[in-house]
Write a structure and sequence with these properties.
alpha+beta, binds magnesium ion, binds adenosine-5'-triphosphate, 12 strands
Length: 444
């Protein structure tokens, strides 16, 4: 690219230099020509006014042949005086363009180039008072010879200008490109790069994208580390129980107990893996999410039916209230939100506690509230419970088979559905989770 810019700049300058030279030469030559003609005209005036012509006619006086050739002829073109050649040897001059023109207009001009193009002869003719024609001629360099004589100067000039162009283009391209090169080499420390104004939006954009990429990479790395760590615990337990049975020393009762342990840990592994897979699916955003109109109350009813067994086990009383209301969303996703929130409300409840699910039509939104009379969430943990693998009380969560991914999935889904989730909780009293679903496709 640098080379390309260098080359183009030099090409443009060369063309510009040559064009200027040609233009200047032709303008200069025009001026030069009219200057010569003017000189000849003044000279003729001088000859006429000083009565030189009559003097020549009378006394046969000859003006020394210098740079101007003087020819005088009759109106019919017969030459009777010439200061450079004998008038007898000269043919009739009537057909000469300058003489023709003078006969018509009083004065005439002509330029004739020599065959080698080296020299040009300038002619000026005028009618004298007695009808004779005075013609003055002068030789001068042609445009080619003038251009030719200035050529070395032009070449030096072109060379000089090209060198300047090369330096300037080199400097400019360097200034243009160096911040970009710095940027490419120094993505982590972009604040140190000093760039020109026009590049700033681009740098800001790259900076933000780079930060996002780094952040995502870190989150992913952290997540993989957490997953591996979480998988290790149940696997270690399973392996331990199996080893104990393997020795053959465990009693029948122990074997049953160990099998239970293996079962519980295998279940934990199972939910851990399926939650991880679900999160990766949501993260990748590859699957197309089909939206449709769903009855929120119907989905809540199904969810409570599904959790009935678990609620009974924990001696929790579940209750569904509110109006029929539709939501705009993906059925599986709405089900997952309901399931995870109700499951938490049961799991982090006290024996004999209550879970109230309420649905309210708010016009543009459908409001789902899930209220429990459970253990509550400390204020400083209320934000964090939506983080992956975050559990307030690790041991309690683990003993109930929790992975700490449920609310992370819920948060991801609500963002996809354009729903808003909020939480109110008091330790020892209970928790109330509110979700505002969109009711129509276009609502924000
Ligand atoms: P999973 O839902 O993946 O099986 P989990 O329930 O531990 O596991 P989340 O649903 O993400 O994970 O919840 C995170 C943490 O938030 C829980 O471990 C628990 O400490 C706390 N929490 C969630 N809901 C409630 C609630 N209704 N009452 C009290 N604490 C809660
Ligand atoms: Mg949960």
């Amino acid at each position: 690219m640098k080379k390309k810019i260098d080359f183009q700049l030099m090409a443009i300058s060369s063309v510009a230099i040559f064009a200027t030279m040609i233009l200047i030469s032709s303008v200069f030559y025009e001026l030069y020509q009219s200057q010569i003609i003017d000189d000849l005209r003044s000279y003729s005036n001088l000859l006429v006014e000083s009565s030189m012509v009559e003097h020549m006619q009378g006394s046969g006086y000859t003006v020394p042949a210098d740079r101007v050739r003087i020819t005088i002829m009759n109106a019919d073109g017969t030459v009777w005086y010439d200061n450079e050649a004998s008038s007898q040897s000269l043919d009739n001059h009537k057909s000469r363009p300058e003489v023709q023109e003078a006969l018509e207009n009083g004065e005439g001009i002509a330029v004739r180039h020599s065959s080698t193009m080296q020299k040009s002869t300038f002619y000026y003719a005028r009618i004298l008072e007695n009808g004779d024609i005075l013609r003055l001629a002068r030789e001068a360099g042609s445009i080619w010879s003038i251009s030719y004589s200035t050529l070395p100067f032009v070449v030096i000039m072109v060379f000089f200008l090209l060198v300047i162009c090369l330096l300037v283009s080199h400097f400019l391209t360097k200034r243009l490109i160096s911040p970009i090169e710095q940027l490419a080499q120094n993505l982590d420390n972009m604040s140190e790069i000093t760039a020109y104004e026009e590049l700033q939006p681009f740098i800001t954009m790259i900076q933000e994208q780079h930060k996002d990429i780094m952040r995502n990479a870190m989150i992913r790395q952290e997540f993989s580390a957490n997953v591996s760590h979480e998988l290790k615990t149940p696997l270690t337990s399973i392996s331990g129980y199996a080893q104990l049975i393997e020795t053959g020393m465990a009693s029948d009762e122990d074997v049953i107990r160990f099998a239970k342990g293996i079962h519980a840990n295998a279940n934990r592994l199972f939910s851990l893996i399926s939650d991880t897979i679900r999160l990766s699916e949501l993260d990748s955003g590859e699957q197309e999410v089909l939206f449709g109109r769903e009855s929120l109350k119907q989905l809540a009813r199904n969810c409570l039916d599904m959790l009935q067994f678990s609620a009974e086990k924990h001696k929790i009383n579940m209750n569904l209230s509110g109006e029929e209301c539709s939501v705009w969303g993906n059925k599986q996703m709405v089900e997952e939100v309901l399931y995870n929130l109700c499951d938490n409300a049961i799991r982090y409840n006290n024996e004999g506690g209550r879970v109230d699910v309420n649905i309210k039509d708010l016009g543009e939104h459908a409001q789902l509230t899930i209220t429990d009379t459970g253990i509550g969430i400390p204020r400083d943990a209320q934000e964090r419970i939506f983080e992956r693998f975050y559990r307030v009380d690790k041991s309690r969560s683990k003993s109930t088979g929790g992975t700490g991914l449920g609310l992370a999935i819920v948060k991801h889904i609500t963002a996809t559905l354009g729903a808003k989730i909020s939480l109110q909780s008091e330790v020892g009293k209970g928790t109330k989770v509110t979700v505002l679903f969109k009711k129509n496709e276009s609502d924000k």
